[in-house]
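$ run holo --ligand "magnesium ion" --emit tokens
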Amino acid sequence: MILRRTCTTEADLAMLAADFGARLMPGDVVALAGPLGAGKTAFVRALVEARLGGDPVSSPTFVFRHRYPGTPPIEHLDLYRIEDPRELPELGLEEAFDGEAIVLVEWWRHAPSLLPARRYEVEIDGAGAGPRTVAIREPA
Ligand SMILES: Nc1ncnc2c1ncn2[C@@H]1O[C@H](COP(=O)(O)OP(=O)(O)OP(=O)(O)O)[C@@H](O)[C@H]1O
Ligand SMILES: [Mg+2]
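-- output --
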């Protein structure tokens, strides 16, 4: 099933992310796609903030992976800088998929083999100050 929404403002997108995030269970994986600046990180931050509280914006910047502690914890992966899947083994990113944490992956198409087949897919389209369309596909 695919849910489609238009988010006029970033606050709209944040509300959608919070609603969606409330349904996630430990071990769930969410694959996020969309062009540069679409709002993938904004979606992740709103989701993390709604589930775990606090201010994820103040968390340290990271390159590939950041784990937000909680019950369950949330893993935030960003595969933007992966140019070749052969880089994966040395990065150890598969540890994020421990079956317990909720895992949110930006730029997942840079390393599709990392993700389990059972996953949500979130596609965000739009840029700049304009509205965003968000499509959320549930696992089969
Ligand atoms: N309706 C909207 N929804 C989401 N973000 C919006 C919206 N309108 C404006 N923005 C702005 O768009 C930017 C989205 O940036 P964000 O870092 O979340 O994108 P991203 O998809 O993670 O990009 P990247 O591919 O570089 O990681 C933010 O600066 C945000 O304030
Ligand atoms: Mg981002």
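-- notes --
The mean pLDDT is 94.
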